[in-house]
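[DERIVE STRUCTURE TOKENS]
===
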Amino acid sequence: MNYEHTGSPTVIEVFADIWCPFTHVGLHALSEQLGAEDRRDVRIWVRSWPLEWVNGKPMDADHAVRHSVELREQATPYLFEEFDGSHFPKSTIPVLALVAKGYKVGYRVGESLSFEVREFLFEHGQDVSDPVILSRIGRYYDLGPPGPDDYATVVADWKEGIDRGVRGSPHFFCGEADIYCPSLDIATQPEGKSKTIRGNLERLGLFVDGCR
């Protein structure tokens, strides 16, 4: 699929990882904002920002659980109901590669996969990197296992994200605009462990309004 083909819809690019709770919240907020504004002209292109490469190590499950609790208590009480980190992926690279494979079929498949793998992880507590689970998700979209070209896309996205100054997961781009995690205000407390979080749908709305 040529992502830059002539006549394509408005595209919001989101550089993000699968196991990032803030991305799960940010994508939900973006989808709801687009629905509220009836922005059927917009497609969401969720690209790979593999935190295990960015940080040089896999994300710790306890780290993800702590942030999911903070988000649930402070900003999104309707998410993370069944997430306890007991089936947390040790790597997200195969999942990112499957999503990349989906986008090569089309935006609709890629978008749906991007949301679904996060739903499986954060709302159903499943290890989406498990080959059996990942294969089952792929088959639903008539996709086989990701191949070398799909893994190469993950690498290419990561390198492009570095070149474009991605600050973290999720980082949004549209045209000349880019912003890190526009739907949330996040402040780290002095001890460096807990966070104060509040929603900022006004900022997200301004970003979406600028995507034309």
Observations:
- The first strand starts at residue 10 and ends at 16.
- The first helix runs from residue 21 to 36.
- Residues 1-6 have pLDDT under 50 and may be disordered.
- The chain has one domain: 10-209.
